[in-house]
Amino acid sequence: MKTGKKEKVLVLVTPQKNGLRLIDYGFSMALANDGELHILHVQKGNSIFDGNDTLKRLQELIDYGSRLGACIHVQCDNNVADFVGKFLKKEKITCVILGEGPFSKAERKFSEWEHIIDVIPEEIRLHVVARDEVHPQQMII
Q: pTM for the full model?
């Protein structure tokens, strides 16, 4: 019997197909550690209705995560990284899974990825899943 703190795995998703792969990875990790799976999408601004396919893609991720028994969280906030940091503390998350960040400096300029990495406390394990792998390969930061 395991003792200690219960594993709480958080998968950070955006409304993209890669989100399904991230959820699978998080589900496997939570299952292997008898833990809880949480899925979080934080939309910058005050509405999730920012594009034609955003809501449809987000619904696909929510439906899939729900079928796996995950706790689903969707939030709008002007400071995505700050919200993620507060969420980690509030929910007592022990492990975060997110997709690989932008490759180019131009992409980073418009990305919250590095800011999110910065708000994750050292005691929380971070798994970054590579973009183009058929089977997720992890990089532990």
A: 0.84
